[in-house]
Amino acid sequence: MWSFKSAGLVENGSLDAAGTYYTGVYENSKTLSIRAIDKDGQLKWEQKLPLSFSLEGLVLSKKGIIYTTSKNQIVAINKEDGSIKFTKKVGSDSLQLSTPAIRQDGFLLVGVNNYTQNGTSFLAKIDPNTGSWVSSSQFPNPGFKQIVFDDQLNLYTYNNRFVFKLDYQLNKKWECSINFPFKLSFDFNKNLLNMHDQPAHIINPITGLV
């Protein structure tokens, strides 16, 4: 067991196969960083980020790249030494990105939320090598937070009113109306679970029916 003292708020992190833990650290509105802490609790590296807003969660690709978002920017960092691969703005400064998700084919998918009056949301497909916006689907009501995939590369996500299923091309297959859904996962029977309520909603992934 070990502990690691931090000068700021530790954001959501990611663990690799070697036991190294990667986490964001939010010290103040002008100081954000990513830290890599090895399995013995020793700091491997720390990378200051040119950002001014707290981080969403981190995801780690099979190619050894860490992806995270802050406000309307996507950041890619090499896990071995913490060097920045790219930072990329997505849209205007009024947008807020969700935690990115890595699809099985390597593309990043991210929720793009516009919280201004009459705001809408997008689910955007992002090039993992450059951070460029490849394609997207638009939805009413902002609030996308989490994205999960099934074995067929279908995408499931939610905002503050609905759970959605989209196919590989980001075409909507169904939407399921649930007030304030939270935390999607799959059970052993490959049903989709919404963990907001107790007991959880069980959603049929084929039909979208609860």
UniProtKB/TrEMBL annotation:
It comes from Brevibacillus laterosporus LMG 15441. Residues 33-113 form the Pyrrolo-quinoline quinone repeat domain. This is Outer membrane assembly lipoprotein YfgL. Keywords: Lipoprotein. SUPFAM superfamilies: Quinoprotein alcohol dehydrogenase-like (SSF50998). InterPro entries: PQQ_rpt_dom, Quinoprotein_ADH-like_sf, WD40/YVTN_repeat-like_dom_sf. The keyword Cytoplasm does not apply. The gene is yfgL.
